[in-house]
Amino acid sequence: MVFRQPKPYGLHWLSEEGNNKTYITVHYVIESQEHLDSYLKNEQPEVAVAEQDQFEFLVTSRRTLSIVF
Hints:
The chain has 69 residues and is α+β, with helices and mostly antiparallel strands. Helices cover 32% and strands 12% of the residues. The protein is built from 2 helices and 2 strands, in the order ββαα. Strands 1-2 form a two-stranded antiparallel ribbon.
């Protein structure tokens, strides 16, 4: 799923951009932690380079959420 969001709180160094940028969050559901670890090790570095080339300026962060109940 892809979500549009307001400018993330705390990104003061992007303030010169005003609100001209689009900020998105992409929510992935993974099969297992092992699958995520494999992706991060083997595929993510190449994906990051391709994204940087496509979007010129890219800020990324990652959170891993686990279902509690």
